[in-house]
Amino acid sequence: MTDLNQTTFQKCTAMTVDKTAIDTLVVGAGQAGVAMSEHLSKLGVPHLVLERNRIAEAWRTGRWDSLVANGPAWHDRFPGLEFDGLDPDAFAGKEQVAEYFEAYARKFNAPIRTGVEVKCVQRNADRPGFTVETSDGVIEARHVVVATGPFQRPAIPPIAPPMAGISQIHSAQYYNPQQLAEGAVLVVGAGSSGVQIADELQRSGKQVYLSVGAHDRPPRAYRNRDFCWWLGVLGEWDAEAMQPGKEHVTIAVSGARGGHTVDFRRLAHQGMTLVGLTQSFNGAVVSFEDNLADNIRRGDENYLALLDKADAYIERNGLDLPLEPEARAMLADPDCVTNPILELDLLKAGVTTIIWATGYSTDYSWLKVDAFKDNGKPQHQRGVSAEPGVYFVGLPWQSRRGSAFIWGVWHDAKHIADHIVKQHTYFNYRDATQRQADAARAPVQKASLMGVR
Ligand SMILES: Cc1cc2nc3c(=O)[nH]c(=O)nc-3n(C[C@H](O)[C@H](O)[C@H](O)COP(=O)(O)OP(=O)(O)OC[C@H]3O[C@@H](n4cnc5c(N)ncnc54)[C@H](O)[C@@H]3O)c2cc1C
């Protein structure tokens, strides 16, 4: 996958002389930037949030039309505001999520300037802080918080050649079935995006091939509790590190049509053709790894493990939640699982579109500071970067599993705001000699203020 994070430690280009100064500059006004602004406001830290588009733009134009939040409204929100007029168990539509963050920002009068892009951030050589070039002038900032999100640039593995007669788009460019040409679709990637898009296309009447890799698929709900609740009480949202070996495991959940458990066998029984991990292309002939059955089996294991943990939790805590033995019933393996397709000639199969639901990468090319590892990823501890004064918020696993999600980012933002305030304390410290000098200067300053010479 192309890594766009290779941050070159170069200088910014031209700089103008008129500068605005601010203690803390937050870059990006998605949920991470809004959360950051709330905590900085509460702590009285002068700050400004710059957003190149609109507040929560990703939820408006970066997602497909029918997308709803993956978690119910009672869960996928910040502590300080509920979704207006929405049943707590309902799943907010993407526009409702965007409006929620706009309303949230209005609630505390967040100092957000939209339509301003940060072009370059560079550490000052002769004084503390950073010089920030924006599309609307230059700003001096003591601290810079990078809240530009973990999902910035659509990432497509470089395995597919351009093919005449087959259009290829990323899931970020998918909006609805009507935009696609007539014909079958290959969806590559079966995380939450891929599986929901494939399901929507299948329901619209299209023939769909879905390439399924390693995945977790928690039950949507079990024994009257949503999986968000289960992951919360079982401490899994707060897990501080990913389990080894899970780096390439996506999570397949869906809030669509009121929420349902993702069940790949059911999709296949409804007519979708499942295939294993997409391996390589030879012209329009695509090869799939022979791992479909294994991927499905591991997904089942993950599903059943959560049911087991939930049952144990209920028993240990004596909770009165109804039994749900039918949740353990599995459909029979469909033919595409028992006799997997390992090679498919896309043209012969009538495939006219490939949708790559293969995730995102980041772009920090504008951040010319020493805050990155050799692989281009941020070097940080809970968002406090290796470059003093530069912070990240909203990174996956920044401090815990929930970090990149709505309910997790708010807590990480609080930690960053606290850190900035602590740095003020250090920076404002005056040693004995300095305090004496301050005291000696004080009467002179006071007298001069009173007009006495
Ligand atoms: C398809 C999809 C569905 C998701 N569904 C859910 C869900 O249901 N629940 C959940 O909790 N999470 C969900 N997430 C994960 C996450 O909550 C969202 O991706 C969310 O948008 C991340 O918020 P953020 O503020 O970190 O980043 P973003 O929302 O991406 O915000 C970053 C902002 O920074 C701005 N920006 C970037 N660079 C600059 C610059 N140089 N200058 C100025 N501004 C800049 C961008 O314009 C953008 O508005 C989903 C993610 C995806 C991809």
TrEMBL record:
SUPFAM superfamilies associated with the record: FAD/NAD(P)-binding domain
Pfam families: Pyr_redox_3
Enzyme Commission code: 1.14.13.-
Lineage of origin: Bacteria, Pseudomonadati, Pseudomonadota, Gammaproteobacteria, Pseudomonadales
Broad EC category: oxidoreductase
UniProt GO MF annotations: monooxygenase activity
Protein name: Flavin-containing monooxygenase
Keywords, comma-separated and alphabetical: Monooxygenase, Oxidoreductase
Tagged with keyword Transferase: no
InterPro entries: Auxin_biosynth/cation_transpt, FAD/NAD-bd_sf
Top-level taxon: Bacteria
